[in-house]
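Risk register update: the risk of archive-format incompatibility is retired. Evidence:
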Amino acid sequence: MERENKTYEINYLMTPLLPEDKLAEETAVLRKVIEDNKGFVVGEDQPKTQKLSYPIKKFDRAYYGWFKFSAGVESVDDIKKGFNKNEKFCELWLLKPGKKISPNSRPDTAPLCRNRKAYLRKKRKKLRSSPNK
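Archived output:
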């Protein structure tokens, strides 16, 4: 029985040490990771330099980009592992289908939010209120 593909979105921050002329090559490598794992890209945004509200891995700037892709559930872990192998990433988020996400709680806005203390306070409160598994 063949499983249906679902649409996912992967957001990432890449190190600012990467020269701008190499960004196209890196995004081609990321696209290949998705395609090699039986997925296909539905949309993408080329990485653009972004000032971060707080340092991530000692950087206050990073290249922010995203891919929207369709893949089977069994392929998603392999795609994420392929992205994680790349040492040029500072952060990586995978959004799963069916999740209702408000603009204030999107994972990709976390490092870009203006008020880091408020963001962290909200996250700690959420963790405390969730039952232990």
